[in-house]
Amino acid sequence: MKCTTIRKGKECPFMSAKGCSYNGGLCHEVVEQCNGCNRTTEHSSAWYCTACPEPARKWQHGNCNLATHVAAAGSKKQAKINPLKASKRAAR
Fold first, then answer.
1. 53 CB-near residues (< 8 Å, 6+ apart)
2. Are the C-beta atoms of residues 42 and 54 closer than 8 Å to each other?
């Protein structure tokens, strides 16, 4: 349904015939960590996330999984080295 509270005219999954069904009935503004994300839009002189109604909860336990400006930190695992083979290579 179309939002009738903050993002007027935009599609919102939380809108129902009785109004906004999200906790509190309103979307929350973006937090500082959201600066630079492509999912933020300005509505009524404040910035809101188009993917999440409460961005602070997404950042509560680390990086937001919807953030477009944060690259996933890939941990490169180092291969386990056989100590016997390593000592033979070193002896050459």
1. 14, 22, 27, 28
2. no
Question: Domain residues of the chain, as ranges?
Answer: 1-70
Q: Which two tokens stand for residue 23?
A: 């906790």
Q: Is the pTM of this model over 0.70?
A: no
In the chain the beta strands, taken as DSSP E runs, fall at: 15-16, 19-20, 40-43, 46-49
Q: Is 10 left (phi over 0), alpha (psi -120 to 50) or beta?
A: beta
Q: Tokens 């939002």 sit at which residue?
A: 3
- Identify the CA nearest to 28 among candidates 68, 61, 58: 58
pLDDT digits (tens, 9 = 90+) for 63-90: 888 888 887 666 667 788 899 999 999 9
